[in-house]
Design goal:
This protein is an alpha+beta fold. It contains two helices and six strands. Strand 2 and strand 3 form a beta hairpin. The longest helix has 7 residues. The radius of gyration is 13 Å and the shape is globular. The two termini are 23 Å apart.
Length: 88
């Protein structure tokens, strides 16, 4: 399975906005999803260009509500949700 297939199985896309923090008392770091690592963690690139690999459970991804409002959701719940695929 390639990195893209693995991310798709989790409901994620390379280049998608994400945020994470290593401990509950830290500020959120923001960046973009880069790839799926061999051990199942997600490789992220922060706003300064540094890479970090973290488990899916510690990452939140950008989402849009029914009326278009932006928010965050755990990356682990994204893969469990079903979405209608685009037509083209």
């Amino acid at each position: 399975m390639s990195n893209v297939d693995g991310l798709t199985a989790l409901g994620l896309r390379a280049g998608e906005n994400a945020r994470w923090r290593r401990r509950d008392n830290e500020r959120w770091s923001t960046g973009r999803i880069a790839a799926l690592e061999g051990d199942g963690s997600i490789r992220l690139i922060d706003n300064k260009g540094a890479t970090v690999s973290l488990p899916v459970s510690s990452i939140e991804v950008n989402k849009f509500g029914r009326r278009g409002a932006a928010g965050w959701e755990p990356a682990s719940s994204r893969g469990a949700r079903t979405e209608q695929l685009g037509l083209l």
